[in-house]
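Run log, item B.
One chain of 387 residues. Sequence copied directly from the ordering sheet:
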Amino acid sequence: MAVKSSGSLSITTDIVGEFGGTVPHSISEYYSGGSLVPAGANPILPSSGAISFSDFYGTTSAIVVNIVNNSYTDGDGSTVNLDMNVELNLATVADGFSTQSSGKHLAPFQFEIDSDTVFNNSISMGAQFADLKIINSGIIAGRGGDGANSPTTFQIGQSNTALGEEGNHAIKLDHDADLVTIENTSVGQIAGGGGGGRTKIVQSSKSGLFVRVGPGGGGGWNGGNGGNAFIHIFGNHGRGPTTVPGGVGTVVTSRTSATLGGNGSVQSHTVGSPSSTPTVTAGQGGYYGGGHGDMQRVLDGGSDVFGVATSAGGGGGGGPWSSNNGNGADGSGGEASGFFIGRGDHPFSGGSFTFSSANGNSVKKTGTITTLTYVGSTTQYYGTRDT
């Protein structure tokens, strides 16, 4: 907390209490930019020359940004509203309080995120920091990866598979820093997005009939869209290339929200009276991972008697952390793996093997962080936490 803004000041109680130091204490220990007082955090405090007690009114050992219900008060006193659906760039926020020096914030920054705040599209550093601390009591989540769209071409001798998108990381330590501290409180949640499911296209022919068909992969938790299915039938009674749309993913918006992703669509084409009517279930939208699509072919009499059906993947949901963790919707539901939230399920040759692209990290480090420290709850991270 900052030094009080009025009244008498005590070097021991007020100044040392805020900035620390060793006895014997002297006011000359506390120049801005010295070993005890961070440069940039207190622009009014002199860095040399005359210094007095009155210079310390309102000074602080760190710049604290309190984010309450996705809003905070900027350095000029104005209220700034933050869109939960837009990636939060911490450097952009910090620029409203201090000036960067050669692309680096020298002043220590502490971002405190309250329990009513949700960022469902990641948080990133955006610039270098000398000392950055994030105290999270809210929800920080990376977006889910889209399920794979069925390929539209087939190559003999190849796998003819398509991978879903990887989930996005929740906290992106994407720049260098001397010190980063992440404190997740007992109610804080930090989760990487679910990975999208993969898919495969197959090709079959019989007596003048030529069929190319593939289902869609399921979308990952937190907004991953279901993958599109595809069907193309050549020959008599054929059908031109048709894309079958996947379900739309939904995102987490609050601690108690439970929004299902959209269901995928189904496309079928039957001619004559095949021995059985191909039936597939749409990929169901899940609270977590979206369900995979499916496909079925009944090629009895060539181009005059056949049936083909396929379905697209369901969208990943915006389910909260609850006892339902990992459950998809009924039918071709999604699934979760271990402590990860919602991986999109997938079809492979019409099956339902549980494979999807990688989930996003809870914390991903790509910058050089000299010291990275975690404080508080270690159980409320969903996804790999870099060290």
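Observations after the first pass:
- The helical segments are 11-19, 90-94.
- Residues 146-163+198-356 form one domain.
Flagged for discussion on Thursday.
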